[in-house]
Design goal:
This protein is mostly helical and 353 residues long. It has one domain (2-315): Up-down Bundle (ABC transporter transmembrane region fold), CATH 1.20.1560. The protein is 82% helix and 0% strand.
Amino acid sequence: SKHRNLKRLVDLAQPYKGLLFDAVLSMLVLSALNLVSPIPMKILIDNAIPEGNLGLLGAVVIGLLCLNLFRQGVSYLNSYTISYVGSRLVFDMRRKLFQHLQRLSLSFYDSRRSGEIVSRLLSDVYSVQTLITGSALSLLVNVFMFVSILIIVFLMHWKLALVSIAIFPLHILTYFFYNKRVTTSSRRASQKSCEIWGSAQEAIGGAKLVKSFTAEVREGKDFVHETKESFGLNLDLTVLSMQWNRTANILAAVGTLVVLWYGGLLVMRKEMQLGTFLAFNAYVGMLYGPVMQLISMVGQVLPALVGVERVFEILDMIPEVQEAPEPIVLTDMKGEVEFKNVSFSYSEDEEVL
């Protein structure tokens, strides 16, 4: 199940929990810096400029410069840490999967194309990096940003805040509408991609055999047919994701326009200062940001979950021939070995020896 696979991913990331904590902390610092960014503009419009206060104007400008320099430094450290941990996770998972493949019985390889196995080893393993260093960290930060901004806008003007979040139930409905469709489409596209890997691996690896039977045209037609199917499946997935994102963008735009209309009325009625309204509008834009990123992240997480599922599917396979925990070590031996009534087969209904 998805929950079981996610738990196994968490266990896989345990050796790097210190670095992951640093990454989360730096992302929260960046989020906090973004939260205070509209405040200087409010001070400029409501205080410094109307009062002609040059000292306050200079202090705000210098503060913005220092804030930006600090943000760039934290962002660099955050990007490096995430990149390092992600690469190490891919290395660990790929090594674990390869070692397990070495222990699996020959019947496993008889029932699968080599290209499909290589696809899981090289391509699907990257899903681990996507989920842990990408989606999981982004989820924490976006939830933090959403809750923090929600508190800020309610403290600034609770009526306008209620107007700004009135559109959110529609986002929830779009999630339930698209979630299952995107998951199914991702699974089909991933499976077809593996089949193409298998066809290419067999055709290239057996090039001499293909040429000896003059089967180039047939192999080419088969490959083109599978590639066209893959193109169609990937296009379907892209269209679904685009429809989801466009729907979310339209909802966010409608919410922003409603806030502009009602907020403009409040300013005209002198119930809200212009600087406060501009800062509020900036926070609303930031409020929709985490929502849009969460929706976009779901479009990345669902294919990644399919990839992780395919990796763990192999890791969960048990070799038919189990190695003894304490095998007998053969010393130098002399003598004869005689075989009587010995047979061997890869499958039960067809003997090889």
